[in-house]
Amino acid sequence: MPDLLSEAERQELLPPLGEAGWGADPDTDALRKIWKFRSFSEAWAFMSRVALLAEKRNHHPDWRNVYNVVDLRLTTHDAGGLTRLDTDMAAVIDRYAGAAEVQRDLAQEIQCLCQVQRPGHSNGPA
């Protein structure tokens, strides 16, 4: 089982990820990032690439997809929090996202393209 990140490692590894849009999910000691793609197909292609990476590394994200939006969390469950597996994987995942928009405010409600295109539509699940 990999070791949890030390405080020194957190100070070294997390700020660059924060600059790239990764935020902390303090309830689960996880990294979280939300991407908005131009279409469902682009979001699905991104998820497919991430899924292949996850299988290769045997390290799988927690994620949610609604139409063009992918909300992804990385944590090492058997270690009980963040490890280098998570920070290393986050850096690779970022390369797969291309020009997708990043939602930096993780507290903001996620709104997919289908909701934006239909004014007056409730923000419930799509």
Question: How does this model look, in words?
Answer:
It is a single chain. By secondary structure, the chain is α+β, with helices and mostly antiparallel strands. The protein has a single domain (7-116), classed as Gyrase A, domain 2. It contains 4 helices and 5 strands. The protein has helices spanning 7-19, 40-57, 84-96, 113-116, and strands at residues 23-25, 30-36, 62-66, 69-74, 101-102. The longest helix is centred in the middle third of the chain and has 18 residues, at 40-57. It is globular and about 40 Å long. The mean pLDDT is 90.
What's the structural blueprint in terms of helices and strands?
Layout: H1 7-19, E1 23-25, E2 30-36, H2 40-57, E3 62-66, E4 69-74, H3 84-96, E5 101-102, H4 113-116
Antiparallel strand pairs: 1-2, 2-4, 2-5, 3-4
GO biological process, one term: tetrahydrobiopterin biosynthetic process
Catalytic activity: (4aS,6R)-4a-hydroxy-L-erythro-5,6,7,8-tetrahydrobiopterin = (6R)-L-erythro-6,7-dihydrobiopterin + H2O
Enzyme class: lyase
Task: Write a concise keyword list for the protein shown above.
alpha+beta; Gyrase A, domain 2; 4 helices; globular
Kindly summarize this structure in a few lines:
The protein is α+β, with helices and mostly antiparallel strands and 126 residues long. The protein has helices at residues 7-19, 40-57, 84-96, 113-116, and strands at 23-25, 30-36, 62-66, 69-74, 101-102.
